[in-house]
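ugh finaly. both done.
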Amino acid sequence: MSLLAEQRREVIVERVRSHGAVRVSELADHLGVSEMTVRRDLDVLARRRLVDKVHGGATAIGEHTTEEPGFSAKSVRELEEKDAIAAEAATLVTPGSAVGLSAGTTTWRLAHRLAKIARLTVVTNSLAVAEALHTGGAEARGSTVILTGGVRTPSEALVGPVAIAALRSLNLEIVFLGVHGMSAAAGFSTPNLTERDTNRALVDAGQQLVVVADHTKWGTVGISTIAELNEADVLVTDAGLADADRAVLEGEVDRVVVVRPGRQ
């Protein structure tokens, strides 16, 4: 395409906002210009505070890639969506399964559902998830809850070498991963580098990866990628996701399940 400079920049801003993050090489191919031209455009847009320029590309303006809201703050966001996602995700678990749950408010809601399923072995690095399983009566139904050790983060996760060592010794049938953000360029990401390594160990321990993420996570980019989009076997999200964004995900993830809050 042949566009004037300002038209090019409008296209760049739109792609950054819709994808969360873009690479210089991708923009150059899409616009039919040199990478140097794209870099100059990104310099202009960054000065205008329309994008954040990062190494090799740009990310959307918003939360910094290292900002991590606390568990309490996140637990009151998109409550209906998270409950609907949790209800759908729980249908993937059968009695007697070995399950992994990452930290996060959506996995926390899922834990309340899993507490009602008998004879599970649930491994988690989340204090809140473990407590939800305990108070929900998981042990009374013959389930075993294993909480890794580690260093506590703002999202109530236990991370670091102790948690990673524990997870690397396990073989789980299904892992449910909550994420800070998801985008075409950055995949499933987190703002906490140490949490990334722990979550990666959890992902590697599972035979099947199910990502649970509401629509607001699309376009958000954390500093570190946990997994690429195509590593997820299933993504459970909600109907607030735009059709174009859903199409991107369906092109990468084996199965995308979209739930409608209030119908569970």
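ok and the 2nd:
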Amino acid sequence: MISGSDGVPEDGDETAFTAEATSSILRDACHAAGLDPTGAELLRLGSNAVYRLSSDPIIVRIAQDRTALPEMKRAVSVARWLEASDFPANRVPRGVTQPTTVGERIVTFWESVQEQVEYATLGELADLLKRLHWLEEPEHLGLPYFDPHAKLAASLTALDGIADRDREFLEERATEVGKAYDRLDFVLPFGLIHGDANIGNVLRHRDGHAVLIDLDGFALAPREWDLILTAMYYDRYGWHSQEEYRTFVHRYGFDLMNWPGYDTLADFRELMMVAWVGHQAATSERFAAEFEKRMRSLRTGEGRDTWGAF
């Protein structure tokens, strides 16, 4: 999902993940890498602070998670492997040693896809996923096995600033959905996945072709995980049209909504989405209202078509 920066406080606390604190980290990281941070533009401030340099066609990502070093090392390795495989994905600049650490924050550098953000189409996302799922990952990448239970549990454990009744409801629902998930019979081959495959992570390159970005979630898992967001965005939230979804299904070659486990997988992924918004709820009224809306939908089963996209 695409994170936003609305209402993030700039309180000058260097231990906080604010625009002011991350701009200082940006300067130090760029100077160490031999890059000029002058005039850099903050594009997003959420799970990562994302900056676009004005001096070079480079994007700088600063991870909010202080424990993300192994994940970022893996993302850089994945990017280099995909480039060697001639797969259209986000590239890392050559000659820059990374990831780097500044004040316990993990920083990575990426080639800018183009000067303005332009998303590709669902058909192109399907093409990229189909091609990605045919690749056989080399052992040196050390990709982890995707553990959705651990990922959701960690997210809920770290969820601060919400009402106790909301936390209890999410934990109870996670237990219920988790049991149903363990009974799923996956039908697609197990293997390499992107981990957060959605329209927000496929951009139009300046030369016209579509590229896959945000490579830090690569893992080994049932391929259904790479199809679930597109199906949910169409089916539950109305963020994609029927024609767009049909194109996606046709070009990938499989309709996840016809699989008996679709609803359970969608419920599981939805909990991850709601928890993510919950983590942002204290940063702005917009996120707080969205979290309240989503919690109401989980309790009543209604109103999902009013959810906002980030």
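summary for the 2nd one i guess: The radius of gyration is 19 Å.
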